[in-house]
Amino acid sequence: MINWDAHACLPQHPQADFTPVSQLHAAGVNHVSLNVGADMNPVSQVMSVIAGYRATIAAHPERFTLISSVDDIIQAAADGRMAISFDLEGSTMLLDQPDMVALYAELGVRQILLAYNRNNSVADGCHDVPRGLTGLGHRMVEAINEAGILLDCAHSGRLCSMDVMNASSKPVIFSHANPYTLVPHGRNVNDEQIRACAATGGVVCVSGLSWFLGSSHPNADDVARHAAYIANLVGVAHAGIGLDICFQQRGLDDTPPGQFDPAYWWPASAGYSASKAPTFTPPSVWRELGAALRRTGMSEAEAEMVMGRNMMRVAQQAWAKPQPLKLMAA
């Protein structure tokens, strides 16, 4: 059994402590996707974070491994090591160049969403004016498919997410987003989006944030309730887990340089509170999640699908690169 957390955040700092990653591993997680940058982070910061994270992973080969395939994850689990990949939340670090996608793939990025809450030159954020996927955005989708990176619609505007899912030739995921029907927050996804994601063969992964779960102190049963809603709507094969735990660490300032305005990225009008930070499920929730999913009526096999097998299937498809054409002998 492989447990797969589709999204987690350490400080956006090259010296981030990986103790939380070890805590996830101790709780039963075999693979985690770590965020290495979002639209508010300049390329200099993103590259610094990637370099620092890669150095930490390389310094502890007995504990961590940076993966590029599902086979790598299976091997890491067999060896008792935590499998790690990276994800990007936005497109600004792509510098409007589709060729940048393949470069990030070489550095360990296995998952990309195109807009973080606000519009950019590629796609729409969920808290901005709807436009849809831009012409450049269509080229980025093609580049992401071609590079063998998993395409993510979390944080995207509804109209734009539908465009992305229509444009992609491979399965698309929401790495950390919950059903809007259960909690009507702009970051959550409606039934139409969930159905469209399932139609691509993709997975909607439940976030563990209090704002999006509708619980001030979220626990395994809260996560399971949202996963069960997705499973009941489109089938258990399309539900997953991406708890989006954000691990803060004293002494590390990861504030993006320049004119960074938190109220722009997380507007009060969209339901964010500057005076009340969200709470997160603890890493230990993974120990309780199987039982919580079974309490919703899922079988043990179905709970295992939600906790990892579904994301393994989708990654296997998305990470596969097209085989080069072979010239026929004359």
Proportion of strand residues: 5-15%
Number of domains: 1
| Share of residues in helices | 25-40%
The secondary-structure class comes to alpha/beta
Global Rg: 18 Å
Stretches where pLDDT is under 50 for at least 5 consecutive residues are: none
Number of strands: 9
CATH homologous superfamily label: Metal-dependent hydrolases
Averaged pLDDT: 96
Would you identify the CATH architecture? Answer: Alpha-Beta Barrel
Assign an overall shape. globular
Quick overview of this protein structure:
GO terms for molecular function: metallodipeptidase activity. It contains twelve helices and nine strands.
Looking at this protein, list some descriptive labels.
TIM Barrel; 330 residues; alpha/beta; 12 helices; 12% strand; two-stranded parallel sheet; globular; seven-stranded parallel beta sheet
Question: How would you portray this structure in words?
Answer:
Helix 1 (19-26) links the parallel strand 1 (4-8) and strand 2. Strands 1, 2, 3, 4, 5, 6 and 7 form a seven-stranded parallel beta sheet that branches. A two-stranded parallel sheet has the order 8-9. It has one domain (4-258, 269-318): Alpha-Beta Barrel (TIM Barrel), CATH 3.20.20.140. Helix 4 runs parallel beside helix 5, helix 9 crosses helix 11 and helix 11 packs across helix 12. With 330 residues, the chain is of the alpha/beta class. The protein has helices spanning 19-26, 43-59, 70-79, 99-106, 135-147, 158-167, 191-199, 210-213, 220-234, 262-265, 285-295, 300-318, and strands at residues 4-8, 31-38, 64-66, 82-89, 109-113, 150-152, 172-173, 204-206, 239-241. The chain has twelve helices and nine strands.
